UniProtKB/TrEMBL annotation:
Descriptive protein name: Aminopeptidase N
InterPro entries: Aminopeptidase_N-like_N (IPR045357), Aminopeptidase_N-like_N_sf (IPR042097), PepN_Ig-like_sf (IPR038438), Peptidase_M1 (IPR001930), Peptidase_M1_dom (IPR014782), Peptidase_M1_pepN (IPR012779), Peptidase_M1_pepN_C (IPR024601), Peptidase_M1_pepN_C_sf (IPR037144)
UniProt domain Peptidase M1 alanyl aminopeptidase C-terminal: residue ranges: 570-896
Keyword terms, alphabetized: Aminopeptidase, Hydrolase, Metal-binding, Metalloprotease, Protease, Zinc
PANTHER family named among the record's database cross-references: PUROMYCIN-SENSITIVE AMINOPEPTIDASE
A single GO molecular function term of this UniProt record: metallopeptidase activity
Domain Peptidase M1 membrane alanine aminopeptidase: 231-455
The organism of origin for this protein: Pseudothauera rhizosphaerae
Length: 897
């Protein structure tokens, strides 16, 4: 464990290294507690850098030997600290280093570097894990050609994998064997990987667009082969999509995906050897929900797409992380939308795409907006950090993808593709910056994107204020758009950004009006993209027969908060008519938000709660509209998330909000019970389960109906949920019914929960759902034991393990981050528990601990009483012995706010 205080690293301090590495030849003698790593480095002087020593990074390494050109280094030429070696080399431009280190995979609980999981060896090197394996200039602008030899026990690790091509394998004495791998592409060390474990592979051979045969493998534990098929299908779809959409082909003869049970994040794009959290690989109908299937498809695609956006062209330094992550998230979002549209066919394509877009917007609003408004707010390209692992954030990923999407909107699909082509033609094989990417886009399109670059440097969610003025005398409508961004930590002044605003005008009959801007001769399209690049600007639409209702930011065309005064009637009108599915959903969200926040204020003030009848009416109309596809209705009828609502509440009062949510949910269930029941009964899919987006939409809507019915404790609904739980043939139905019963806290819930546990007690991934459901439970009866008590009890369940990140995220993550109504207890006991758990986790795995720590970073937004209870717990964590840089950075920034 690192205990020293992490220094702050600044983007402006980037300088190339005096020496880089052209080739590395690695040898691993694998043993659980003493793996010996021999590394031969061909170091070369960097002609573009100022002269200096060879600099190597290391962490938790036991150094056994170091030679320079085969000799002990000359006295005084080597300086060594815990984490750094500097070697002076005079009068040569090439040097061969040989370094032998010993590491202890078994003691590696941080899951960064080389570690053990269920008896197998796995690596995770992004961002700075390679230095925990051997001494190396551990930064992405050092790209070397890797050769790797693995030597291990044949019985424990029959499978030995690394990046690239297998060039040799054979037997060794004492029951050991070896394999040698060569990666033909130079790569930064964060893309290095090895796996040595007892696994089996699902295999497939495919031809690439240019006719090369490639071997695809999905490696899983024995007994899980029947769950690997969907990941393989997804991989093949991703390959085809990248060929068709961007002309990008797989460049290796072999591409492997490996599932591992203990993993800090979702998955990792190591060259030719992607390593995945098992949760994003394994699926069969009995154990995975439709949503799990969707996630697997998108994560498999995401990692695959990194092969070009990340690996072939990589990042110069970690400040450029969004160069690969924002772009790759955008690519996986487009891929998923295309897959959904393709499955829905000609008729449902646009609705299916909108459903995916709505999903993405939900994530952005609930995870990224709060981040951008809190002490961790940072631009998609940060200016500084203490611990890079803390910057794998919703901002870098999701807002980063929104920034790429805006380029796509501004340049059009063809212009964007031309920019991508130019980017690869210039930078293939290089480690580059976000400027290089945007410059390629600008050059390919003959467009000045200098002001657009501000999106990379400015933190905070811009507010887009819209005002419309109708002039009945001349049939014109003047739209005024203005922008402003609140100060964020370290960034008091904000400049205007380039904001593409997709606009439509809806006529009184609900149909879109053709748009004609002042000075144009003819009305044109019904949706147009306006570009706001100054603080404020006006547009005048002419030739309108009647006053329109504006529909702004269609498709969520920019990551901003839209402020537009619309009364309840206008929101209900757009809920019923907006032709842009995303905005139609948004109208419903805005209306629901208004109702929920009003009721929360009433609850806080001790007033009676009453849901306005017009809201229920508008909601019921969507529910009964069979012209809308079920997946869209499931989105439109789901209330805004708690995290997003808390962000909109001043001050945030989780208990009051929870009271409002409970009341609104129950009322929507009670008043619309007949409709929900009719829906649930009509939408049941006949026949055997298959994962298909069209069926998934129906299942999602039925499960939502059950949820409302159980919330209202409608007898027929509860009975239906219980029956569906008992008769379910797949996890989506079974878990949906169980979740509904739990949500209603009805008597049948307890038995169902126990039955679920019995059925899946040996299935660790499914048990994560069981933990998450209980930690995320909503108490309906104030006299019942708090969920906190249940969470504490579950920590002692034999199926729980604090060393398994998935378990921690399922139990503690679901409680701290996804259940504010129960976590923020007035007596502060939730916060005490939080501090205790963060400190305990941090001693073993700082990355996981830091993620849990972030649950309280926005503590300044809460009521004064809650803040008073939170502060001492933040201070307690900060005072803990040997606190990691990861958690230190989070808590220091929170306290400084
Ligand atoms: N690059 C990975 C991705 O596809 C992210 C990742 C996986 C990661 N494991 C990690 C980042 C561990 C930091 C630490 O998005
Ligand atoms: Zn990624």
């Amino acid at each position: 464990m690192r205990t020293e205080h992490a220094p702050t690293i600044h983007r402006a301090d980037y300088a190339p290294l005096a020496w880089t590495v052209a080739r590395i030849d690695l040898h691993f003698a694998l043993a659980p507690q003493a793996t010996v790593v021999t590394s031969r480095l061909a170091c070369v002087r960097n002609p573009d850098a100022a002269p200096g020593p060879i600099v190597l990074d290391g962490e938790e390494l036991e150094t056994l030997a170091l030679t320079v050109d085969g000799l002990d280094p000359a006295p005084g030429t080597v300086r060594r600290t815990e984490s750094r070696i500097e070697i002076d080399v005079a009068d040569r431009d090439e040097v061969a280093l040989e370094i032998v280190t010993r590491i202890n995979p078994q003691a590696n609980t941080a899951l960064s570097g080389l570690y053990l999981s269920r008896g197998g060896y796995f690596t995770q090197c992004e961002a700075e894990g390679f230095r925990r394996i051997t001494w190396f200039p551990d930064r992405p602008d050092v790209m070397a050609r890797f050769t790797v030899t693995l030597e291990g026990d044949k019985a424990a690790c029959p499978v030995l994998l690394s990046n690239g091509n297998l060039v040799e394998e054979g037997e060794l004495p004492d029951g050991r064997h070896y394999a040698r791998w060569e990666d033909p592409f130079p790569k930064p060390c964060y893309l290095f990987a090895l796996v040595a474990a007892d696994l089996v592979a699902l295999e497939r051979r495919e031809l690439t667009a240019s006719g090369r045969e490639v071997l695809l493998q999905v490696w899983v534990e024995k007994g899980n082969l029947d769950r690997a098929g969907h990941a393989m299908e997804s991989l093949v779809h991703a390959m085809r999509w990248d060929e068709e959409t961007f002309g990008l082909e797989l460049d290796l003869d072999r591409f492997m995906i490996v599932a591992v049970s203990d993993f800090n994040m979702g998955a990792m794009e190591n060259k030719g050897l992607n390593i995945f959290n098992a949760k994003y690989v394994l699926a069969k109908p009995d154990t995975a929900t439709d949503v799990d299937y969707e996630h697997i498809e998108s994560v498999v695609a995401h990692e695959y797409f990194h092969n070009w956006t990340g690996n072939r062209v990589t990042c110069r330094d970690w400040f450029q992380l969004t160069l690969k992550e924002g772009l790759t998230v955008f690519r996986d979002q487009q891929f998923s939308a295309d897959m959904l549209a393709c499955a829905a066919g000609a008729e449902g394509g646009s609705s299916a795409r909108a459903v995916k877009r709505i999903d993405d917007v939900r994530v952005l609003r609930s995870a990224q907006f709060p981040e951008d408004a809190g002490p961790m707010a940072h631009p998609i390209r940060p200016e500084s950090y203490q611990e890079i692992n803390n910057f794998y954030t919703a901002t870098v990923y999701e807002k980063g993808a929104e920034v790429i999407r805006m380029l796509h909107t501004l340049l059009g699909p063809e212009g964007f593709r031309n920019g991508m082509d130019l980017y690869f033609s210039y930078h293939d094989g290089q480690a580059v910056t976000c400027d290089d990417f945007v410059n390629a886009m600008a050059e390919a399109n003959g467009r000045d994107l200098d002001q657009f670059m501000r999106w990379y440097g400015q933190a905070g969610t811009p507010r887009l204020r819209a005002q419309g003025e109708w002039n009945g005398a001349d049939g014109s409508y003047t739209l005024t758009l203005s922008q402003s961004t609140q100060p964020t930590p370290g960034q008091p002044d904000k400049l205007p950004l380039v904001i593409p605003v997709a606009v439509g005008l809806i006529g009184p009959d609900g149909a879109d009006l053709p748009l004609q801007l002042e000075g144009e001769h003819q009305p044109g399209a019904t949706t147009r993209v306006l570009e706001l690049a100054t603080e404020t600007r006006q547009w005048r639409f002419t030739n309108l027969a009647a006053e329109p209702a504006p529909s702004l930011l269609r498709g969520f065309s920019a990551p901003v908060i839209l402020e537009l005064d619309e009364d309840d009637g206008r929101l209900a009108f757009r809920m019923a008519h907006d032709s842009d599915a995303c905005n139609r959903w948004d109208a419903a969200q805005r209306y629901a938000e208004r109702v929920l926040l009003q009721l929360a204020a009433d609850a806080a003030a001790g007033r009676a709660l009453k849901v306005p009848a017009p809201f229920i009416d508008a909601f019921g109309k969507l529910l009964r509209n069979e012209l809308l596809d079920p997946a869209f209705r499931a989105q439109a009828l789901a209330l805004p998330g708690e995290a997003y609502l808390l962000e909109r509440m001043e001050p945030a009062d989780p208990a009051a909000l929870r009271a409002a949510q409970l009341h609104v949910g129950a009322e929507l269930g009670r008043v619309l019970a007949a409709d929900w029941l009719a829906l649930a009964e009509s939408l049941v899919e006949p026949g055997e389960y298959r994962y298909h987006p069209a069926d998934a939409g129906g299942r999602a809507l039925v499960n939502l109906a059950l949820r409302y019915l159980c919330a209202a404790r409608v007898d027929a609904g509860v009975a239906l949920a219980a029956a569906r739980f008992d008769s379910a043939t797949n996890m989506t139905d079974r878990f949906g019914a169980l979740a509904a019963l739990m949500h209603g806290a009805v008597p049948a819930a307890e038995a169902a929960l126990a039955a679920f546990y019995r059925r899946y007690q040996n299935d660790t991934l499914v048990l994560d759902k069981w933990f998450a459901l209980q930690a995320g439970a909503w108490r309906r009866d104030a006299a019942a034991a708090p969920v906190l008590a249940q969470v504490r009890e579950l920590l002692a369940d034999p199926a729980f393990s604090p060393s398994n990140p998935n378990k921690v995220y399922a139990l503690l993550g679901s409680f701290f981050r996804a259940n504010p109504g129960e976590f923020h207890l007035a007596d502060g006991s939730g916060y005490e528990f939080w501090a205790e758990q963060v400190i305990a986790l941090d001693a073993a795995n700082p990355q996981v601990a830091a993620r849990m720590a972030r649950a309280l970073e926005n503590w300044r937004r809460f009521t004064p009483a809650l803040q008073a209870a939170i502060r001492p717990q933040l201070e307690r964590v900060l005072a803990a012995d040997g606190l990691s840089p990861d958690v230190t950075e989070i808590v220091e920034k929170a306290l400084a706010a």
